């Protein structure tokens, strides 16, 4: 049986993540969490409609009234749940290829589930007799207002027509932001060049979007734009690009936001939450500005928990999940993108200079090794190899081996004083993983 990872349940659509599994997941979630109302949206994968229907059947059989939102960015689904005071679910595999799909579930108010809640749902699905056999269902309806409410909320974050005379390229990864991000930015006055906004069910994330930021970098240079914003398939993450095509990743986005919010005295707790993947250069920059940093495991769910525990208002991941806690209950790529463009507008300085001044990244190399199964004790299994690698760094940098929570991958990350050192050490560790676990690059 599929299990919850760092961000919901994912698998190959209709073979691993079957219709029946999704029905049972919805039924278990509705009964375990005693849900009365759920909003459901999906990204643009060809399997999305059938799985959305299956999930709706499961929730309804569990007694919940279901409101279908159709193709909707994940943060807009969470927003709708928060506005309605109900639960939510996104049928999406985020940045994964189109053949995969998944389900992200938000509890009442649009908050991601806790570990305990996920374990209770898994236990209910595994229990004998837990399969849904209830033929009587609650109402299933469709909503046409949720997406407009979300658009309006994002537009309200900055003054009317604030982005007039700003040229922006947006890459929507042929995903759920395709009809949303270009519209909102245009409403705010920007001149928008939209690319990869023509989903066909199979082209989501296909060499475009947040996981292929060089593509938007080329488009920004071609169109002589000031900024580029690249989203992933479900729109909960964003990567920026400056006017010469330099990538502005989540670490830089967080550094820019934290410093700006501190200056404006709106950085609650004078702190920020990041994950173990965050570059050492970010920590140095925050120390320079006297901003506290809390580090969590990977996943915006972990970031959100730490934000609430520390009463902080800003957190996120290097991958581009940025959480403005006062404005959202989850990572929101469009919200973060609008905040970034507004910062550049207010400072009246290029994004290139702002990003360079905010922080300097230590050279970092990340290699993804695809494996059939990943053990949870990678640090123990590869303790000797990690120790050798750390000695090779001469006290500058770090080594991290971790299992992906969303794909069958081992992520090998090395930071070092020099790019060459980081690359050679990472290559050697990746080779060790392949040899021992039978993986491939």
Topology (elements, then pairings):
Blueprint: E1 9-12, H1 19-32, E2 37-42, H2 48-61, E3 65-71, H3 74-84, E4 87-91, E5 100-106, H4 115-126, E6 140-142, H5 146-155, E7 167-171, H6 181-187, E8 191-195, H7 213-223, E9 227-231, E10 238-241, E11 247-248, H8 250-263, E12 271-275, H9 280-289, E13 292-296, H10 300-310, E14 314-316, E15 322-324, H11 333-347, H12 351-358, E16 364-370, H13 378-381, H14 383-392, E17 397-403, E18 409-416, H15 419-437
Parallel strand pairs: 2-3, 2-4, 3-6, 7-8, 7-9, 12-13
Antiparallel strand pairs: 1-5, 4-5, 9-10, 10-11, 14-15, 16-18, 17-18
Helix pairs in contact: 1-2, 1-4, 3-5, 5-6, 8-9, 8-11, 14-15
Short description:
The chain has 441 residues and is α/β, with parallel strands linked by helices. The protein has 15 helices and 18 strands.
């Amino acid at each position: 049986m599929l299990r919850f990872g760092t961000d919901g349940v994912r698998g190959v659509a209709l073979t691993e993540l079957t219709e029946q599994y999704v029905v049972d997941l919805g039924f278990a979630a509705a009964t375990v969490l005693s849900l009365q109302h759920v909003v459901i949206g999906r990204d643009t994968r060809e399997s999305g409609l059938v799985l959305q229907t299956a999930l709706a059947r499961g929730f309804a059989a569990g007694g919940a009234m279901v409101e279908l939102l159709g193709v909707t960015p994940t943060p807009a689904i969470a927003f709708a749940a928060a506005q309605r005071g109900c639960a939510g679910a996104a049928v999406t595999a985020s940045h994964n290829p189109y053949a995969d799909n998944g389900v992200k579930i938000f509890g009442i108010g649009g908050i991601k589930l806790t570990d305990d809640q996920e374990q209770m749902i898994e236990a209910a699905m595994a229990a004998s007799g837990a399969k849904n056999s209830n033929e009587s269902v609650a109402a299933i309806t469709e909503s046409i207002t949720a997406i407009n409410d979300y658009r309006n909320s994002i537009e309200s974050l900055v003054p009317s027509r604030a982005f007039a005379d700003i040229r922006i390229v947006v890459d929507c990864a042929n995903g759920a932001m395709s009809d949303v991000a270009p519209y909102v930015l245009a409403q705010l006055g920007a001149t928008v060049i939209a690319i990869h906004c023509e989903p066909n069910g199979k082209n989501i994330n296909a060499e475009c979007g947040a996981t292929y930021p060089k593509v938007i970098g080329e488009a920004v240079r071609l169109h002589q734009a000031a900024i580029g914003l690249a989203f992933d398939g479900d729109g909960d993450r964003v990567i920026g690009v400056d006017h010469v095509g330099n990538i502005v990743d989540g670490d830089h986005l967080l550094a820019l936001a934290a410093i700006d919010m501190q200056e404006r005295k709106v950085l609650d707790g004078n702190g920020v939450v990041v994950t173990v993947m965050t570059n050492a250069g970010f920590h140095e920059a925050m120390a320079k500005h006297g901003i506290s940093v809390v580090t969590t495991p990977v996943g915006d769910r972990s970031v959100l928990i730490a934000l609430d525990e520390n009463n902080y208002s800003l957190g996120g991941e290097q991958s581009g999940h940025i959480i403005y806690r006062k404005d959202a209950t989850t990572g929101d790529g469009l919200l973060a993108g609008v905040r970034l463009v507004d910062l550049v507008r207010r400072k009246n300085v290029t994004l290139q200079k702002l990003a360079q001044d905010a922080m300097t990244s230590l050279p970092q190399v990340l290699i993804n090794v695809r494996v059939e199964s990943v053990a949870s004790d990678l640090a123990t299994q590869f303790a000797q190899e990690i120790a050798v690698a750390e000695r090779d760094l001469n006290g500058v940098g770090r080594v991290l081996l971790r299992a992906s929570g969303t794909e069958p991958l081992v992520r090998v990350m090395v930071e070092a004083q020099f790019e060459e050192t980081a690359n050679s050490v990472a290559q050697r560790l990746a080779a060790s993983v392949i040899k021992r676990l039978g993986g491939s690059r």
